[in-house]
Design a protein that fits this description.
The chain has about 120 residues and is mainly α. Helices cover about 70% and strands about 5% of the residues. The protein has helices spanning about 5, 35-45, 50-60, 60-85, 90-95, 100-120; strands at about 10-15, 20.
């Protein structure tokens, strides 16, 4: 009679006379994960353990993190470009007053980072 594990497609391997369930994570295509994906991974590990474990054991964690990273990058880029236009931060300002341009651009980047963290990374 087969065990429930075997009925579900599980197999055993013999080690030192004992049958041990052969438990392996499914193969997953490795995709590059940037800083946004790494931040979300840290968040999942710390605050959403069940979600993290479900993605890990289903073999979809890497694809999920790569998608989150892509979404966050696109959102950040859109926000930065939109705020630059809204606030009149141009190449002309960069030529005329580099220090002001740098300060204002850094402020915009910080704002965009906070929005992306709130809406995508820590959601």
């Amino acid at each position: 009679m087969k065990s429930i594990f075997e009925q579900l497609g599980g197999i055993y391997q013999e080690e030192n006379g004992y049958l041990i369930p052969d438990l392996r994570l499914p193969d997953e295509e490795e995709k590059p994960i940037g800083i946004w994906g790494q931040r979300h991974l840290d968040y999942l590990k710390q605050y959403r353990r069940v979600t993290y474990t479900n993605f890990l054991t289903s073999g979809r964690l890497n694809a999920y993190l790569a998608d989150i990273d892509r979404q966050a990058q696109e959102c950040s880029h859109r926000l930065i470009e939109g705020m630059k236009q809204e606030q009149g931060i141009t190449e002309q300002l960069k030529e005329e007053n580099t220090l002001e341009w740098t300060g204002r651009l850094n402020n915009i980047r910080a704002c965009a980072r906070e929005i992306v963290n709130e809406e995508i990374i820590f959601a």
